[in-house]
């Protein structure tokens, strides 16, 4: 059964991961149920497989010609083209081998763009094999190279890949962070295709988190782009209507949600979008539950589960089973609700465990480390993008990290001491109260640091991190400083929200640069969390 419907998974990947592809003209089928989408997906898959095999043969010819001429750069590019073609026809192990061969060639002839592409191809092949931890590490490797050399498409793809893994782990807040970075970067560059692509990924996290106000703003931004590009892939248009329907259901605009789901279903049926069609079933069920019509939610859910079982690795099925559980609970059918919940756990374990190693893809420490890595890469990009930012932060009175870090260290210090303070929930504070409230909190903490250690040098990093730089003797004051910060945080907190501070300190090691020490200290804040 699984091999019979591999084309469905391939069709979903091509539509979902390439929203800038032009839409294909489809045959018109007389069936009106989800079988229509299945038939179109099969026809599309046959055409894509044929094209992929032709591209694979062409890439092989180019690789052999490059080997004979000794052109390693062309050979590496041809290997990556082969890897992509193998991936498109579900030959994931061959894709992985070709990508690694290209990476070995590029080690002797550095090409940052191709090296980042190789790491991304490795990550996608590992993801398809279910080796998600290694896929995450590959995305991070590609992100490091792309950030260092300011390769915009590679940075965006890495952020999206990392965020997608966080969604699989059900860490939507971290996924939103990665998707937000990609979306902000796309807005800065003005690339319509990437604004749309990253915006849709961001909407997936926002709607899952229930941040409807922010989702509405993204939807409003994307619609003119989608309307202006009618030849973009059907998946972009269907995803837009699906996220619009999710927001309308949350706002209790049931009639409008009906219209949006009808639009999405029509696009999915004509384009052969199996993933989208299953999502239509899920949201239709949620709409019926919102109307208090639980019995009407059962049929679309069962159809969506039957369709998703052909191609899904557990991510979509777990969502469908949870909604099915809610529907049976609303009907008072406890045994059926329990059975649906058990099926949810089965799909969840299938998703979160490697098919060979049988292990969790992300433990808590790795997730937090990746979270900080994302922030550090974002900071690196900001420093390169805005070198003319004022040296002083008006909010805290501290220097921005844009200044030369070694010059900011105390010149008389034999070993520099660093104290890092992270306001872990600053984003939540700014969203629930206001941005001004978040700035006031930072100002209070900065003033506390300045008063406790008047000889130390203050830095602000990104949005939520304050750092003190001092000589080694100052470390005796750190316990008192921590106590004063905690007291300030308690005074600022109230019944609605509590300020969460994470603190870590360090001494500079022999041979360690100031930047390396700062990075080590920031990562240490994750262990203290």
UniProtKB/TrEMBL annotation:
| Keyword terms | Cytoplasm, Repeat, TPR repeat
Q: From which domain of life does this come? A: Bacteria
Q: Which PANTHER family match?
A: TETRATRICOPEPTIDE REPEAT PROTEIN 29
Coarse class of the primary localization is cytoplasm
Q: What is this protein called?
A: Uncharacterized protein
| Record-stated family | Belongs to the Rap family.
InterPro entries, per the entry: Bac_ResReg_Asp_Phosphatase, TPR-like_helical_dom_sf
Give the location in the cell: Cytoplasm
Record-level GO cellular component terms: cytoplasm
Please name the SUPFAM superfamilies in this protein's record. TPR-like
User: What is the species of this protein?
Assistant: Andreprevotia lacus DSM 23236
